[in-house]
Amino acid sequence: MADTTMDTDVVIAGAGPTGLMLACELRLAGVDVVVAERLAERSGESRAGGIHSRTLEVLDQRGILDRFLDEGELQPVGHFSGLYLDFDESESRHPYPLMILQSTIERLLEEWAVELGVRVRRSSEVSGIRQDEEGVTVELGTDQGPATLRARYLVGCDGGRSTVRKLAGIDFPGTEATMTALIGDVELPDLPEDYVWVRRTPVGDYSAIAFEPGWHRVITSEFDRVDGRDEPVTFERLKESLIRVAGTDFGMRNPRWVSRFNDAARQAARYREGRVLLAGDAAHIHFPAGGQGLNMGVQDAVNLGWKLASVVRGQAPETLLDSYHTERHPVAERVLHNTRAQSALVRPGPQTDALREVFSALMVFDDVNQYLRHLLTALDIRYPIDGDHPLVGRRVPDADLKSSEGETYVFALLHDARPVLLDLCGSAEVAAVAEGWADRVDRVEARSEDEQWPVPAIGEIPAPAALLIRPDGYAAWAAAPGHSPDTAALRTALTTWFGPAANDEGTQRQ
Ligand SMILES: Cc1cc2nc3c(=O)[nH]c(=O)nc-3n(C[C@H](O)[C@H](O)[C@H](O)COP(=O)(O)OP(=O)(O)OC[C@H]3O[C@@H](n4cnc5c(N)ncnc54)[C@H](O)[C@@H]3O)c2cc1C
């Protein structure tokens, strides 16, 4: 619970997908959290239209995947810059992207947040912050006038133009926009029935994606103009752009919303400044090719949530928070890199046409497909964690298990967002070490149903004998079968990630 001098443990700025997911992760760990959201109600706008494999796995790890599957549609093909990409069913229980509108994702996450006891405070715009040794004072502009909230930590999940990032003095270096794209949900009565996919033209490209009966999402990209940030985005502007790019507006009418984006790619120089952290678009923006931003924000939240909770509860030292930057900054760097490449691949002109043909030819090769697929699905991420076993630092595959309580699977063990020491060989030594962390780490004895586990980017490996799984689903330690487990390394891993054993002196309390 929050200490008495604080209004709450953590304030999150922004109730977008990242802020809501982070709030849920913190609540699962018993941390008090307030989400301050500028808007009076959800906008209903949907920039994102899909989520990838690793995010589906993350939702499965928390036991809420069915809510999303019920409202979306799995799509067995994907694309890299509009070029078809295959997915591989052997890599994940959820290998395909789920087409689901961002507005639905936000509604489902907010419903879950409310169930978990998150307080979402709307019409509350973060406008000032003051940090000191004990906490952060967050100034809010609200519909009732100015207000303040005092918390131990503030996380800016307030989108690409993040006020929190600016107030914390964190640089946002990167590359400028070189094009302008307009997007709108509209009716398109004159769109030819044989229309499919993205159409490239000498001026740019356009796409019209049917997302509801009678409704299309239109996107136009123009490469010879860069709109100023303050230029208004209007329905007329979208119509004119479609006429320039496609030669017609297909009878476009009845806009639900229109918006604009570009290919500027920037990343926060650091994800933490004292008691202020950044996640999601507040930490990274890029061209939305391949639909990666929301996925990355949700995964930032799942990486940060349990670490911040552990520090707030005094179980781990504040330095644990530095691993958030160390692990997640390179992930976004890779996404910025691949989206820059994708934006180069959509420019008009005969040179790009030729480049796309070469690229398409290369994508016939399995290794190329796999490489590009992993850029999008994020199933191959390996965090820099010490350890010799190939699973260390990687997301743990969702293997089927059998325990004395019956059949289960790895992700089901993570529903409470607690760390799990999975003992697959009934080791007395592992059990003895686990005792010191019994208050924080669940020890589960089970048997793997499969002798081999599939690991993206590596291939199949023998099922481990024992495995320490962090709440985000990544392996912090693993023992290979047929060897005596390295319990010294296990102790180090437990201490590094979950603080000293309960009976050790010097447990950090803040
Ligand atoms: C055309 C397009 C298509 C996309 N498609 C995909 C896709 O298919 N898949 C995918 O993964 N990603 C996609 N993205 C990216 C995705 O939309 C973003 O990455 C995602 O919205 C980021 O979520 P977020 O919560 O970090 O930020 P946001 O969604 O921007 O949410 C930030 C929240 O903070 C609030 N806020 C702002 N300032 C303040 C303040 N000072 N105080 C309080 N609250 C504040 C805002 O009102 C907002 O609710 C797409 C983007 C675009 C433009």
Which structural class fits the helix and strand makeup?
alpha+beta
How much of the sequence lies in strands comes to: 25-35%
Name the ligand types. Answer: flavin-adenine dinucleotide
CATH superfamily of the largest domain: FAD/NAD(P)-binding domain
Count all strands and give the number. 30
Helix content: 25-40%
CATH class of the largest domain: Alpha Beta
Q: Work out the radius of gyration.
A: 24 Å
Mass-distribution shape: globular
Average pLDDT figure: 94
Compute the separation of the termini in Å. 13 Å
Helix count equals 12
- The CATH architecture of the largest domain comes to 3-Layer(bba) Sandwich
Flag low-confidence runs: 506-510
Number of domains: 3
Largest sheet: 8 strands, mixed
